Amino acid sequence: MSNPQADDGTLKGTQRAAILLMTLGEEKASEILKLMEPEEVQSVGSAMTSLKNISQTNISQVLDGFVTQVGKESALSLGTDSFLRNTLVSALGRDKANSVLSQVHMDAESHGLESLKWMDPKAIHHVIQNEHPQIIAIVLTHLMRDKAGAVLDLLPDSVQTDVMVRVASLDSVHPAALEELDTILQQRFEKEPEVSISKIGGIKVAAEILNTVSSATEGRVFEALNEYNDDMSEQIQESMFVFENLLALDDRGMQLLLREIPQDKLVKALKGTSIEIRNKIFDNVSATAAELMRDDLDAMGPIRLREVEDLQKEIMAVAQRLAEEGQIALGNKDDEFV
Fold first, then answer.
1. Secondary structure of residue 336 in the 3-state scheme
2. Which of 220, 255, 289 is the last residue of a domain?
3. Which of 83, 107, 131 is the last residue of a domain?
4. CA 116 and chain centroid, separation
5. Do residues 120 and 212 both lie within one domain?
6. Are 312 and 269 in contact (CB under 8 A)?
């Protein structure tokens, strides 16, 4: 049976995009997804989960110029779950894909939380400001990270740390807890509550949220976190400043950083990194130095992953020190430069 929403000819834009991607195949679709913003990937992913069997009429409307090839089939039966997972893994990597998939499935099954995602941070804050910190933490984990950070900035100082401790400590939420949350949101949005267990929260999510907040908020949270739980604070900070963050450095900042890193350590730290991060570094050293580093990398044998990670952490510690001194800018904080 065709999707009722598809049969009435009122396909949404995201549904049209989902059908087009599905007909292109996983490899080509993944290339397109790489060019999309996280919010767009999540929206299209949600549309994919809502589409099962699409009528030939709808396919023709969406594909237009490709109607001849598609017309060989009477209908397009879509294996949405496997297609979505494989395509997202190909486009984003397994960790990011799992995060998006978790969010996508929650979108399809939790109307109250979905409603919050379309709201302005100030409006979200107005809705949840008087809720228990645990409720606020769950809400933040289901928002896009930059929006969650904006909401966190609006919370009272005394609540911010409590909420982030709970975000970092979250592993999964029982259906009963999500049902309670949806019931609360239902009173505001008049949505029909549906629940599902979902993997959320953790150190990584806390780090991603704190990467988007103001420097003042970050400083207050970590000051209190250090007193509450040193280990948690250290883990969050390590997750906030990962080696790939160096891509955000401008050329001047990268050059300042590289002056403080011995070349032998830098070469080893580049083992197994992306082409983007390597090129970023090679572009900020002399042509001779870049050629030597490339040769060293090509000739280098296997290195223990732990050794590479330790060297990367060492470099990031230097980068963090330079950032704290105001010499370079890491991440997307609201600091102003003149």
1. coil
2. 220
3. 107
4. 17
5. yes
6. yes
Name the residue range of residue 9's domain. Answer: 4-107
For residue 234, being part of any structural domain is answered with: no
Distances (CA, A) of 30 to 35, 53, 123: 9, 21, 34
Whether 232 maps to a domain, the answer reads no
How far apart (Å, rounded) are the C-alpha atoms in residues 160 and 9? 46
Instruction: Tell me which DSSP letter residue 78 carries.
Output: -
Per the structure block, which two tokens stand in for 205? 């999510």
Same domain (yes/no): 116, 134? yes
> How confident is the prediction along the chain (338 residues), in pLDDT tens digits per residue?
344 444 445 667 788 778 877 777 777 777 777 777 777 777 777 777 776 666 666 766 665 534 433 344 334 444 555 666 666 666 666 666 666 665 555 545 455 676 677 777 888 888 888 888 988 998 898 888 888 999 999 999 989 999 999 999 887 777 677 777 777 776 666 543 333 334 456 887 788 788 777 777 878 888 888 888 888 888 888 777 778 888 888 999 999 999 999 999 999 999 988 889 999 999 999 999 999 999 999 898 888 888 998 898 889 889 988 988 889 887 554 444 44
Q: Residue 55: helix, strand or coil by DSSP?
A: strand
| Total-model pTM | 0.41
Phi/psi at 328 (5° precision): -135, 165
The answer to whether 255 and 284 are in contact (CB under 8 A) is yes
What's the total number of domains in the chain?
Answer: 3
Q: Is 164 helix (H, G, I), strand (E, B) or coil?
A: helix
